[in-house]
Amino acid sequence: MVEIKTNESLAAMRESGRVVARALAAVREKAAPGVPLTELDRAARAVLAEAGAGSPFLDYHPEWAPVPFPAVVCVSVNDAIVHGIPDGTRLAPGDLVSVDCGATLGGWAGDAAVSFTVGPARPEDTRLIAAAEEALEAGIAAAVVGNRIGDIAHAIGRVCRAAGYGIPDGFGGHGIGRAMHEDPGVPNEGRPGRGMRLRHGMVLAIEPMLIGGGTDEHYTARDGWTIRTSDGSRASHAEHTVAITDDGPRVLTAL
Prior knowledge:
Layout: H1 7-30, H2 37-51, E1 73-77, E2 80-82, E3 96-105, E4 108-117, H3 123-141, H4 149-162, E5 173-175, E6 182-186, E7 203-206, E8 209-211, E9 218-220, E10 227-229, E11 235-237, E12 240-243, E13 250-251
Antiparallel strand pairs: 1-3, 2-10, 3-4, 5-6, 5-7, 7-12, 8-11, 9-10, 12-13
Helix pairs in contact: 1-2, 3-4
């Protein structure tokens, strides 16, 4: 079931989105060579605490996961695509880091992700990150009243494939509102003109995930959470929470 949000609810979701944006900014500022991934989680926790916000990630336990998620951010480094658990691993110069963060405030959730490099970036990483951001922008541009979910999926997939990157099957965006994961699902590849029609008041988390080596293959690491590329190539992830409105798409998780 898809809940259509009122304009007042969209305004409330914008507040939770701002918390997510500030948390991601704090994590990015904290990231440097030698910093353990747990410190990135602490930086995000501090932002959430200051805002009086909760975390939809912390203790999240879907049926496929062996244990509840132990942090407020997913930190996925290099060949990790998504769902990386922040542990004592220390960042190294040149690492490609994808950070996914959520927040709940006033009963509403926000969810966003960003990828960046630690220190000087390799040209191939710069291109990979830029492609994820371009795919996200394309997906957002397609998120207009009257379009369908397939139009968003097609816009994302076209950018990813044209750049020569892989798309991990089975992972994509989702509806969001009172809970972090709601209907409908938003694939990162699909056929235009298919799927649910978009209406004013729908809110979607749109999140392209790209595999640098060009293959779609991936596997779940021993921790039961982290999704890694099968070929060992690097991955990037970009995400925003986006409201569908009569005035066009409205990004709720921008600073």
